[in-house]
Amino acid sequence: MTSHFKYIFTMLIVFSLALTACNLPVAASPTASPPTVSPPVLATLTISPLPATATFTPVVTIGPTFTVEPSLTPTQAIPMAEVQKESNCRKGPAENYERVATYAVGQKLEVVANDLGAGFLYVRNPDKPEETCWILAANLAVSGEVASLPQFTPPPSPLPAPAFSAVYKKIYQCKTDMFFMFIIENTGGANFRSAYIKATDVKSGKSTEQALNAFDLRSECVIAKNITPLTPGSTGYLYTLPFKSDMRGRTLKIIIMVCTEQNLKGVCATQVLEIKPK
Questions:
Q1: Model pTM score
Q2: Which residue, 49, 131, 162, 174, is the most exposed by fewest CB within 10 angstroms?
Q3: SS3 for 175?
């Protein structure tokens, strides 16, 4: 009996201890530190240059393909000239060539070529393309580049060059008017049919001028001998218009021009003299 009681008592004690153990607080697990994350190690990328011989040509196709036309060099405009003074246009760059046409002020001409230094331009009449000739450049207003134009060699002159000599003869007086008389000798190979004479007082600048279609000899206020044309080797006469004052002892500049056609047309030649009448 006693043994049985001990056994029961012992089991109660064990059971009590077991219940006590279940109610005891559970010890907290130690808190784990967050793991340390090291920053990623970046790899170094080394790009070696391609060899010099390698060529990389990217081809990108976007939308339709357009063909770019090459630009065209603009054609140089033809130089044009406008006549500023009525001018003869001839078959060569000199006044002893045959006349092709006479152009009035305002006439438009195409400039085709330069001469070899005589001061003429080779032109074409746009209204008559077959009409080409040489014209004095000083009588034109040119627009456009002419320096690059070709230089044409003119044909041989078919006409003899005009030439003359002029000599002051004397004072010729008609009533109260006083003229200055000049002797003209044709020393060339062409006839002269007109003339121009201008006398200018160098000190005052006053002048007289006139044009004539003859080389007449005057005597006592009338024509004593009619001379027209003035043929090669022959002699004619020119007279200035009178001044309103006495010009004796004064220096005068005289311009004389003679031409192969009437009204100062055709081939002309000019001389300048200086006289001091007494």
A1: 0.49
A2: 49
A3: coil
What is the residue-level pLDDT of the chain in tens, covering all 278 positions?
A: 556 666 666 676 666 665 555 555 544 444 445 555 455 544 454 555 555 555 545 544 444 554 545 555 555 678 999 999 999 999 888 777 888 999 999 999 999 998 777 789 999 988 888 889 999 998 999 998 888 888 888 888 776 778 999 999 999 988 889 899 999 999 998 899 999 999 999 999 999 999 999 999 999 889 999 999 999 999 999 999 999 888 999 999 999 999 988 999 888 899 999 999 98
Stretch(es) of the chain classified as CATH 2.60.40.2550: 164-275
Q: Which CATH code fits 164-275?
A: 2.60.40.2550
Q: Which two tokens stand for residue 43?
A: 């790899």
Protein fold of 80-143: SH3 type barrels. (2.30.30)
Phi and psi of 193, rounded to 5°?
Answer: -120, -5
Residue type for 115, please? D
Tell me the residue length of the chain. 278
